Automatic annotation (TrEMBL), chain B:
InterPro entries, per the entry: ACP-like_sf, PP-bd_ACP
Domain named Carrier: residues: 4-79
Protein species of origin: Spirochaeta isovalerica
TM region positions: none
Protein name: Acyl carrier protein/polyketide biosynthesis acyl carrier protein
A Pfam family per the record: PP-binding
Domain of life: Bacteria
């Protein structure tokens, strides 16, 4: 197993994948993406999971793209592997529960959008920060964010790039299943996972197949639009400057 | 713009962005971290306050600031510029 990922499958066939790249704080480095995909392969080759809990670090669930990738994109090198992760989650045979104890930004938040059930922490922040760096949202954000946040909050998140606090989202009434204190996020995820694991796994798989059809389509739609918008917005001369000043934070 | 006004704005934004501080008096000699702020909370408090006070401080100048009082001084410097 990649050392930036921890996988554990318990006696109830609940799989828990913890994205654990402490050094780089769970950004989409090539190693991170490879580690994630390999761990998913390993899970499916060796186990029959009834459901998957996807979690991250205490401070950061997933921080999205790394600066070098974005600079490459602004230099016209288009080779984005991030989408492989969204597609992988949407195409699983079992439900995925995103247990976000820490912050989730940009593509990191998309991992939750591609999940079936989402748990967030009151103390952490969640943002679709793409526009802060001068380019349009990607990885499926433009078609998937509405489902989790509601259309108008999704609009605000995308246009302003604001990092919303979990407690603030809780007041707004989004579609996030639970927004609880950080220390309770994993326990909540395991409680839901246990309820799912008690069901007939064959029927769970069927249900997942049906429910994911819509998301698969939304992801294909997003790809068409977002790729075109990226070709345009990454080529704006201001974008590189904004990326650099964003990462100076 | 007075320093008192700046501190008032920062304190309001700290209360708005962090839990359970409604009845707390914010001590400017403390850091936002002392009130439970994580790094993204601090960025949000700073950007909200700058918008409210209509000032812009480059990120690089904020890196070494240790407490709310120093942040207010930095804001004041840019308000007067």
């Amino acid at each position: 197993m990649a050392d930036n990922m921890h996988l554990h499958v318990d006696e109830n066939n609940i799989a828990h994948l913890k994205m654990n790249d402490v050094e780089n704080k769970n950004i989409f480095s090539n190693d991170f993406i490879r580690g994630f995909l390999e761990t998913m392969d390993e899970l499916e080759a060796n186990y029959k999971p009834h459901c998957l809990i996807l979690s991250g670090l205490d401070s950061v669930f997933c921080a999205g793209a790394e600066k070098d990738t974005l600079i490459d994109l602004s230099n016209g090198k288009i080779d984005v592997k991030d989408l492989l992760m969204s597609e992988r989650l949407v195409n699983t045979e079992y439900p995925v529960i995103a247990a976000m104890e820490g912050h989730a930004m940009g593509g990191g938040l998309v991992l939750a959008l591609c999940s079936d059930i989402v748990i967030a922490a009151r103390e952490s922040r969640y943002g679709a920060v793409f526009m802060n760096m001068g380019f349009t949202p990607g990885m499926g954000t433009t078609t998937l964010l509405q489902g989790l946040m509601g259309e108008f909050i999704a609009n605000e998140m995308m246009f302003t790039g604001k990092r919303f606090k979990g407690s603030e989202l809780a007041q707004k009434g989004t579609n996030i299943n639970y927004i609880v204190p950080k220390k309770d996020v994993l326990a909540k995820a395991f409680d839901i996972a246990l309820q799912i694991s008690e069901k007939n796994v064959k029927s769970v798989n069927l249900l997942k197949y049906t429910l994911s059809a819509k998301k698969k389509k939304l992801l294909v739609d997003a790809r068409l639009q977002e790729d075109m918008m990226h070709k345009l917005s990454f080529a704006f001369p201001e974008t590189k400057e904004r990326i650099n000043s964003f990462y100076a934070e | 713009m007075t320093k008192e006004k700046i501190i008032e704005v920062i304190a309001e934004n700290i209360k708005e962005n962090l839990d359970d501080l409604e009845n707390e008096t914010i001590d400017p000699m403390k850091s936002m971290k002392d009130y439970g702020a994580n790094s993204l909370d601090m960025i949000e408090v700073v950007s909200c306050s700058m918008r409210e006070l209509n000032i812009k401080v480059p990120r690089a100048e904020l890196a070494d600031i240790e407490n709310i009082d120093q942040l207010a001084d930095k804001f004041l410097e840019h308000a007067e510029a």
